[in-house]
Amino acid sequence: MTQAEAEERLKQYGENKLKQKREFKAGKIFLSQFSSPLIYILVLAAAVTFILGDTIDAWVISAAVMLNTVLGFFQEMKAERGIETLGKMLTPKAKVIRDGERQIIEASQVVPGDICVLEIGERVAADGKIIESENLSLNEAMLTGESLPVHKKA
């Protein structure tokens, strides 16, 4: 396949990417901070303490719950942003044969008809047919749950 054919197929089929559904909302993350059994116990303790008339202790317990919630929220938001940034920095690569020679391209640029070259330890960039193989085993755990590599033949 030539580079021009690959560019045409990229326009026709689009990039070799899974659609990202990873959007995080601040409100959802904030509310998730209240989903801990320990928080339930503390809120119940604050309510009981307030009903019994010990308002100072009730306010102290409530303040501890809110402090925990706010700190957890900011930590989780920071972690989500870090994961998003890391995902943008790490772009998988693929070895393909185009214009008669091996090229290393971003995996998102692999199109139908590309010949991908795999070596030991590399990830498969796209679905495809095996043209030639020598003792090829693939770890399909993410797709099938298989714990052992699966042997493949051309």
Descriptors for this entry?
alpha+beta, 154 residues, elongated
Q: Could you characterize the architecture of this molecule?
A:
The protein has 154 residues and is of the alpha+beta class. The chain has two domains: 3-17 and 91-152, Calcium-transporting ATPase, cytoplasmic transduction domain A; 26-89. The protein has helices at 3-13, 26-32, 37-51, 55-89, 141-144; strands spanning 93-98, 101-106, 115-116, 136-138, 150-152. The strands form two sheets. A three-stranded antiparallel β-sheet has the order 2-1-3, with no helix packed on it. Helix 3 (37-51) packs antiparallel against helix 4. The longest helix is centred in the middle third of the chain and has 35 residues, at 55-89. The mean pLDDT is 86.
In short, what is this structure?
This protein is an alpha+beta fold and 154 residues long.
